[in-house]
Amino acid sequence: GKKLRIISMALLTEIVQRSPVDTGLFRNNNVVSIGSADFSTTQETDKAGGQAIQRGSAVIAQGQPYSVIYIQNNLPYAERLENGHSKQAPTGVYANSFHGVTQAYK
User: Fold this and answer.
1) What string of DSSP letters covers 41-65?
2) Banded model confidence at residue 22, pLDDT cuts 50, 70, 90
3) C-alpha dihedral over 52, 41, 101, 7, to 10 degrees?
């Protein structure tokens, strides 16, 4: 379970840092859940990304061996951003983060 938590934290941190800042809304809507997807959204902003990382790491800390950890963003425009609609993240957020972290933990 420890390696799962380490990799999940690395992924969450990478995703939040790569997320376009705009109002901080997209950044704060990176949601972490265990076992099943969480389709909630928040209207609270978090420009620095610290809240999103703290909230997510509290969930990740509860991860048991073999648990499935979801990291997702449910804002309506999240898919457009992933497809390169933001100048701040022209090549998307999630795929890049996943690629970077999987390379680092091979």
Assistant:
1) ------SSSHHHHHHHHHHHTTPPT
2) confident
3) 70
Contacts (Cβ under 8 Å, ≥6 apart) of 14? 97, 100, 101
Q: Which residue's structure tokens are 């990176």?
A: 30
Contact 12, 53 (CB under 8 A): yes
Task: Please state, in angstroms and rounded to a whole number, the distance separating the CA atoms of residues 43 and 28.
Answer: 8
pTM, entire model: 0.93
CA dist 96 and 11 (Å) reads 10
Judged on CB neighbours under 10 Å (0-12, 13-18, 19+), 81 is buried
Q: pLDDT tens-digit profile of 45-69?
A: 999 999 999 999 999 999 998 899 9
Query: What span, in angstroms and rounded, lies between the C-alpha atoms of 24 and 44?
Result: 8
